[in-house]
Prior knowledge:
Immunoglobulin-like; single chain; binds calcium ion; mainly beta; five-stranded antiparallel sheet; 0% helix
Amino acid sequence: MCSVSAGNRILGNGIESNGALGIDLEGPGETGGQVTPNDPQDADAGPNRLQNFPLITAARGGANTLAQGTLNSTPNRDFLLELFHGPEPDPGGHGEGARFLVRTNVTTDAAGHADWTLTVPADFSGQFLTVTATDLATEDTSEFSPAVRADKEDDPHGKMEWAAARLEDGEFVAVFPTAAGQTYIVLFSDDLGTDEWQVLATFTGTGDLMTLRLPVTDAAQRFFVLRRP
Ligand SMILES: [Ca+2]
Ligand SMILES: [Ca+2]
Ligand SMILES: [Ca+2]
């Protein structure tokens, strides 16, 4: 949508993949399809008054899918926020808004800031979530926020946290809690840029804290990840 006016309210629609931004407001000097950056307190003018989009700071799947984030726009104003999900973001990383999920109202404070939470009682793990903001006084709808993938809560295949990790006498010493009989895999990579992880070791949990001592040799840097298979 390349709008030349203001007050365009775009609500609750499925906006399918079309190779361009699902909602595109054309700011000064922009050609079509570019993300229009947010400005502090949204004082800028243009199509839909170049309404600022929200930002997602957390996205999680599970029995309930949850998205949390912030909005910076006109101070002391009511906004409608709408959450969408889709299989992938547009090439710029913002939403395609394939399907509408849920909406909520927020009010910005005197600084133009609002925190928000949106939840849906269904599992959208692995889906990309994106949000729009609509100014309820002017009916201007924003472009889509950057899309964030909903991680699965307690993913049994996911990455786990070390309880403690340190370098000691040229060894990487890691401590982590284990479940009895559970298999754990340690992977390593010397270059995060290639994202090539090799299996270093496999362990069976004892139900207690486990300590690993992994030699770090012939590499300027080495990264370790702990997973369950
Ligand atoms: Ca734009
Ligand atoms: Ca703006
Ligand atoms: Ca504005």
